[in-house]
Amino acid sequence: MDTIPHTSRPGYFGEFGGRFVPETLMPPLLEVEEALTSILPSEAFRNELQELLAEYCGRPTPITLCKNLSAELGFELFLKREDLLHTGAHKINNALGQALLARMMGKSHVIAETGAGQHGVATATAAAKFGMRCTVFMGAKDVERQAPNVQRMKLLGAQVVAVQSGSCTLKDAINEALRYWISHQADTMYVFGTAAGPHPFPTLVRELQKVIGTEAREQMLTRVGTLPDYVVACVGGGSNAIGMLHPFIHDKQVRLVGVEAGGTGEPGCENSAAINLGTPGVLHGARMNLLQTPDGQICESSSISAGLDYPGVGPEHVHLHHTGRVLYSIAYDHEALDAFRRLSRAEGIIPALESSHALAWVLREANSIKPDSRVLVNLSGRGDKDLAHALHYIDLD
Ligand SMILES: Cc1ncc(COP(=O)(O)O)c(C=O)c1O
Is the pLDDT of residue 98 over 90? Predict the structure, then answer.
């Protein structure tokens, strides 16, 4: 079994990835690729990003042992606390890194897509910090259902464009942002929100999110004295998961698990589990697994958590699934809601509904996890943003 992700061609992870874009998008993508190899590894970039992550965002985030849940489950459950970061989720690691890259590339304007609003808020935050202009593309349907995040972005100084095409959701927002970029290349950088899209975005986003797993690995070794037996993360487009799992890939004794959103569990396209239930195809410039009809039309995805609601998944994850190094499983809406409530009650930590999918896998598989194991879950974000939505389904009494 091939356990190491390899990139035989730049931008490819096995058979997945690539850069399937119109000719007019090649120049800005090549410019970002050049910045990835020249600016990203430079000492100036590394030092400035590290300082910002520490002093502006609150890194390193701690790992927390969930003592109460661990006692119930019979093994040790640790959380990597990305929920404690500035703006409340891991998205800021990537948005701040890409905005800094844009500034060093001489750009004055950042654009971004957003679904639930988390990446839009993170990009608007980074733009405010650097004094850059920011435009966020958001499906008109999402603008309506995520009103508080739209207000946050506007307060931070961003312009929010409601995208009226297609299904008026995230995939249409990405299409519109790519279209805008074609005609505004000189001053604009597209800050892509997840580990998907055309090369070099899957690699760039992974490099900026790897801080999660690198820190967590070090913290387990120094604090607990050993590596975890399992590392678990939720998978939407795949950025928090690749950031968490990648630094553990060569630790063959560590089981790596990615958890996709299965929606309600009813048959049809109404889920967001592109690895488990999708088929290969091209979306947003990359070959990956997609939820699509037999004719190749993209299905509308669905999940209780807006951040996992994407009909594709980052190409590196599809490759890691094929090599067998990472197990990709599914958690359903009701399991995520149960985990949301259980962590809140047992530990006093309200998780994002996205992260609740990772926890849900652990709770469901608890009987098959050996006693005294150590399980590390990436708590990718905090759940304050989800409260109103979750309370439609949860009875608090
Ligand atoms: C808290 C949180 N976790 C996870 C995700 C899923 O994105 P990704 O798969 O890129 O980590 C999101 C997306 O908005 C999110 O807000």
Answer: yes
Distance CA(56)–CA(23), nearest Å, equals 38
Q: How far apart are CA 255 and CA 249, in angstroms?
A: 9
Active site residue 66: yes
pTM of the entire predicted model: 0.96
How many whole angstroms from 380 Cα to the centroid of ligand 1?
7
Q: Which residues contact 183 (CB under 8 A, 6 or more apart)?
A: none
Mean pLDDT of 89-118: 97
Mean of pLDDT values over 218-245: 98
In this model, does residue 3 exceed pLDDT 80? Answer: no
Domains and CATH numbers, the chain: 20-51+91-206 (3.40.50.1100), 58-88+210-390 (3.40.50.1100)
- Band (4; pLDDT cuts 50, 70, 90): very low
- Helices 118-130 and 147-155 pack at an angle, to 10 degrees, of 10
Query: Is 90 one of the catalytic residues?
Result: yes
Residue with tokens 């387990």: 220
Answer yes or no: is the C-beta of 380 below 6 A from any ligand 1 atom. Answer: yes
**Residue 115 main-chain phi, psi, to 5 deg:** -105, -75
- Read off the pLDDT of residues 151-180 as tens digits, 9 standing for 90 and up: 999 999 999 999 999 989 999 999 999 999
119 CA: nearest ligand 1 atom: 14
What is the Cα 335 distance to its own chain's centre? 20
Please report the atom of ligand 1 found closest to the CA of residue 355: 3
68: Cα separation from own chain's centroid: 28
192 touches 205 (CB < 8 A): yes
Q: Per the structure block, which two tokens stand in for 18?
A: 């690539």
Residue 207 has pLDDT above 50, yes or no: yes
Whole-number Å distance, alpha carbon 395 to ligand 1 midpoint, is: 25
Q: How far apart are the first and last CA of the chain?
A: 50
